[in-house]
Amino acid sequence: MLAPTLLSFSTLLLGALASPHVVHEKRSIHTDRQWSKTTQLDSNAILPFRIGLTQGNLEHGDGWLMDVSDPASPNYGKHWTSAQVIDAFKPSEDTIRSVHDWLVEGGIDSTRHRLSEGLNWLEFHATASEAESLFNAKYHVFTHAATGTRHIACDEYSLPAHIQSHVDFITPGVHFDAKTRDNTIEMYDAEGNQLEKRGNPWWPGPNHRGPHWPGWPGWPGPVPHNPMWHPHPAASNICNDSFVTPYCIRLLYDVPTDLTPAEGNSVGIVEYTPETFLQSDLNTFFKAYEPQAVGEAPKFDSIDGGYLFRGYNTTNSFGYLGEPSLDLQYAMSLLYPQNVVLYQVGDLAEASNTSFNNFLDAIDASYCTYDGGDTPGLDAVYPDPYPGPHSYKGKEDCGTYAPAKVISTSYGYGEYQLPASYEVRQCHEYMKLGLMGVTFAYSSGDYGVGGYGGQCVTADGNVTDGTSGIFVPDFPASCPYVLAVGATQIRNGTNNVAAAIKAGQQPEVAMELYLTPEGLVGTDFPIGANPIGKNVFSSSGGFSNVFPLPSYQQSTVTAYNKKYAPNYPGQYNNSGNARGIPDIASNGAWLSIVVNGNFSQVFGTSCAAPTVSALLGLINGERMKAGKSSVGFVNPTLYANPHVLNDVTAGGNPGCGTYGFNTEVGWDPVTGLGTPNFPKMLQLFMSLP
């Protein structure tokens, strides 16, 4: 099927032609200052450009999503098809015509550009010189100080005044959209010559790893909210304050083991090459904790050349195997025998650029262009321009895979690291997928109110050492159309969780642990202790600086702000009209996993997102067997029924030289509404149409 092409328009208003250029986007002072210009881009360099056309009906999108997601709505569960979504949000004919005519007038004729299948992106190739003239911009190669990652960008660009309202943003533009760790072992130049190996992440040793993934604050993101870990022997049915297994998760949240699978149901786990897993690790884990699952493997969906990397060694294996091992071992154990899909995104040669956008392209054709259109230095472009054995030469995946009903991701940015326009555009895509009945669960982060590695920022955008500065909410967790998941731990001194639950006690508190000077997880941080000057690993949360307070959070977050909001002038968005993070929480401390044949224990919100996703997957299975739809966007239902969650009222998330926020009765920006009560959640969702 051919991609839709633009019609030729001959009418051009002289008044519009004469309109002056005005700055459309300028890099914010809050953008990560570790990016610096290396050199001006060669004027003859040819780049693929994407113009994000202003979409139609976005002002109705939230209402439409609530219509199929609000449990009080008569249309609850009546999710839309992809075709309906495309038709509802396509740009107006005036927008398409105006941008087309402007490009033609600027020398980019009709044969050089085309529309995406979803009609919301316009793609063309141009030299840097042409683009600089068209956008009144100067393009440079930027380099990240800590990692050496390079990106093509400009400081600002301009558009004619009459075009501004028709364009969200342009890439390459002012964005630094580096999605995964810069772990590529081998790179090849255009002639196929192997390049010098890039600096690998710092690995502290085979039996532990540092929390500053991959070894320093300021990594450009998104970084996996990777677990910290300790080695340990296996013990299947222990559940206490220093040892958590699938058995323990089931005990904490009253999850049954006898639910049968439903045809068409699935939970997706997203990983980015070179992150990988070993089937032998799955089997060792299952043998210890879920014997009936031995031999089971996830359904493997390779996106843009994604494959199971094997270039690690004994010293650094945890960095490559840790996150996928955790995600798959717990999701598959809790869901067995329900399907789990592994979305493995990107080849090795472009690992530093593989992006959330590459993943969204693969599951939603309305988001990508027919021939691709992701931008070098922003998103990975396929076929891969780099020669060599690790370069994917196939066509970019565009709507190749149907999305799983629930999708878990443990990666993110600090909100300040990307322009708001970019985050808003991507957030709208989660809204559209919610309309289609897909649940996205994102971990909220692991450094309290600070960003990755505990970093905070100054008003002029510089990164601090974490002892002061502005709080750093996490994105995409801050998008109001995803389920943001924080972390808890079993209360210190609780050696019999079953007895505590039977006695009506809440055995969990917010995840808070000391970090040693070497960056290792140490002992539990005492509830209520003074955190100033201490290095604490804790569940991230707070208030967005980009997204407003959604309607479903209105009453709960407003109640928190009126009664409990701390007084930290200038350090967080205390306007009372900001999206609160997280939504819910799950256990994130002392989870047992197997990595490269060894049992270890891990910590972080990375542990929580796949657990919550698995439980929602079980609920979907029961609904689908009853002839009902998937749960889709669950936030409105959970906020309207907080009784289906176990409120967590002890602990906090310190950072940036403050105590951070504290857990309170009801919603709070540490553990959200609380942890799952599976029987109550199942009963609620089964009662809905």
UniProtKB/TrEMBL annotation:
SUPFAM superfamilies: Protease propeptides/inhibitors (SSF54897), Subtilisin-like (SSF52743). InterPro entries: Peptidase_S8/S53_dom, Peptidase_S8/S53_dom_sf, S53_propep, Sedolisin_dom, Tripeptidyl-peptidase_I. Coiled coil: none annotated. It catalyses: Release of an N-terminal tripeptide from a polypeptide. It is found in: Secreted, Extracellular space. GO terms for biological process: proteolysis. GO terms for molecular function: metal ion binding; serine-type endopeptidase activity; tripeptidyl-peptidase activity. Its EC number is 3.4.14.10. It comes from the Eukaryota. Residues 1-18 form the signal peptide. This is tripeptidyl-peptidase II. CDD domains: Peptidases_S53, Pro-peptidase_S53. Keywords: Calcium, Hydrolase, Metal-binding, Protease, Serine protease, Signal, Zymogen. Its cofactor is Ca(2+). Ca(2+) binds at D647, V648, G666, D668. Binds 1 Ca(2+) ion per subunit.
